[in-house]
């Protein structure tokens, strides 16, 4: 199989191939090992590979993590940066997974902080963001605001103030949704207190 043909197979499968799909397309493990050695393919974990120069909008880690743990959702600092809510950039990705899920060992190589949430704290406000043929899960901006309030002691009041100020100045804010989320997640009273200080 030529490199161009292999690339097309990866592209049609959102740039990732598992051992199962390699067998389906009659691609040998030996050939894949050669392509890994040549730097054409990246081994994400045992039995999972990504085309190295995949069109993932520079967010390779997001997609690698998603293919290892499909239940993950980007949260806190990572979501705040995605929505341009804060000027602070963490050197780690923050992800939430359901509390009952075991953390996969293959995630250990990534610079991540894992939050185990349950109920509405995990399930509410998940958006699927598509980038080309790939996608990743992230909490929407209102859920991110509520999470920032919930973790205000960890984030620090300066970052929380910046996040809230940026949100309330945004043309894309949805105050009714924010209030609904805040009440559902038990931070409604605190939101009103901080909003009153900023507005």
How is this structure best described in words?
- With 199 residues, this protein is an alpha+beta fold.
- The protein has 2 domains: 3-51, no CATH class; 60-198, no CATH class.
- The chain is 47% helix and 19% strand.
- The protein has 11 helices and 8 strands.
- The strands form 3 sheets. Strands 1-3-2 form a 3-stranded antiparallel sheet. A 3-stranded mixed sheet has the order 4-5-6.
- β7 and β8 form a beta hairpin.
- α5 (76-82) runs antiparallel to α7, α7 (141-150) runs antiparallel to α9 (157-169) and α7 (141-150) packs across α10.
Task: Outline the fold blueprint.
Layout: H1 3-12, E1 16-18, H2 19-24, H3 29-37, E2 41-45, E3 48-51, H4 60-68, E4 73-74, H5 76-82, E5 93-98, E6 112-117, H6 120-123, E7 126-131, E8 134-139, H7 141-150, H8 152-155, H9 157-169, H10 175-184, H11 188-198
Parallel strand pairs: 5-6
Antiparallel strand pairs: 1-3, 2-3, 4-5, 7-8
Supply database-style keywords:
199 residues; elongated; 3-stranded mixed β-sheet; 8 strands; alpha+beta; 3-stranded antiparallel β-sheet; single chain; 11 helices
């Amino acid at each position: 199989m030529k490199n161009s043909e292999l690339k097309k197979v990866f592209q049609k499968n959102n740039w990732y191939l598992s051992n199962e799909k390699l067998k389906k397309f009659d691609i040998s493990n030996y050939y894949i090992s050669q392509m890994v050695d040549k730097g054409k393919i990246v081994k994400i974990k045992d039995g999972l590979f990504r085309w190295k120069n995949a069109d993932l909008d520079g967010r390779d880690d997001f997609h690698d993590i998603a293919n290892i743990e499909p239940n993950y959702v980007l949260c806190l600092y990572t979501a705040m940066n995605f929505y341009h809510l804060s000027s602070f950039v963490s050197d780690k990705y923050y992800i939430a997974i359901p509390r009952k899920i075991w953390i996969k060992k293959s995630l250990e190589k990534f610079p991540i902080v894992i939050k185990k949430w349950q109920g509405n704290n995990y399930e509410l406000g998940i958006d699927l963001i598509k980038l080309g043929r790939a996608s990743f899960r992230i909490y929407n901006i209102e859920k991110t605001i509520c999470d920032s309030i919930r973790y205000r002691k960890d984030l620090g009041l300066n970052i929380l103030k910046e996040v809230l100020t940026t949100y309330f100045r945004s043309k894309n804010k949805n105050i009714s949704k924010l209030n609904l989320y805040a009440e559902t997640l038990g931070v409604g009273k605190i939101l009103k207190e901080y909003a009153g200080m900023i507005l």
